[in-house]
Amino acid sequence: MAEDTLETERLILRPPVAEDLPWVLAHMNTASVMRHLAGVRSPEAVAESLADDIDAFHGGGHRRWTVWLHDGATRVGRVGLFHLRSPAAPQVLQGQREIGWTFAEAHWGRGYATEAARAVIDHAFTALALRVLWSQTSDSNAASTRMMRRLGFTFRPELGYVDPDYPPEDNPTTVWSMDAPCA
pLDDT band for position 1 (50/70/90)? Predict the structure, then answer.
C-alpha cells in the first residue's frame, strides 16, 4: 500500500485523483452533505477545489483523502487535514492543523466517518508529530458535534467566532481541540 494511503478495518483512505470528480459532484456536492459547509457549489468551483486538493496533497499542503470501502469500488466520503485559514478565526488558530470530514448521505450512520477520522488523527499525531489537532463546526451541526465528542476532542468555547462565509444558522463556529497522546 502506498505511503500516502491509510487503511482501517473497513476503509481505505487514498489520495484524491481527477477521476474522483464525477463522484464528488454527484454524491458530495449535494444540499444534504453541504448544508453546514456554505451550500452546494458550482461544478467549476468543485473541479477547482478537487484540483487544489490533488496539488496540495502531493505538494506538502493540506491532505484530503478519498475514503473507499475495502471492496475498492465504493467511495463513501472524504476526510482531511487542513491549515486553518479563516480570516475570522482567532489569531491563535491561524495556520494550525484541523481535521474535517464529509460523507455521502447514503453512507451516514455506519461509523465510517468516525473510523476514517481516527485513522487521520493517528496519522496526524504519529507521522506528522502534531502536538494538537483542531476541529470546527457549529451548534447547528449536531452530528459533527457528537462525533467530535466521541473522538475525544475538547470543546474550546473561548475560541468560538462568527465566520461571515457561513449563514447565521451556522454561526458561531465552535472550536474543538485534541492534544497528542503522551508518549
Answer: very low
Contact, 97 vs 133, CB < 8 A? yes
Give the model's pLDDT for residue 45: 81
pTM of the model: 0.89
Domain boundaries, position 83? 6-179
Most confident residue range from 41-45, 101-105, 144-148: 144-148
Rama region for 28: left / alpha / beta (φ>0; ψ in -120 to 50; rest): alpha
Q: Is residue 1 part of a domain?
A: no
Q: 82 is written with which cell numbers?
A: 487542513
Give Rg (Cα) of the chain.
Answer: 16
**Cα separations (Å) of 23 from 63, 68, 90, 116, 155?**
18, 12, 35, 18, 33
What does the alpha-carbon distance between residue 80 and residue 52 come to, in Å, rounded to a whole number? 13
CATH number at residue 157: 3.40.630.30
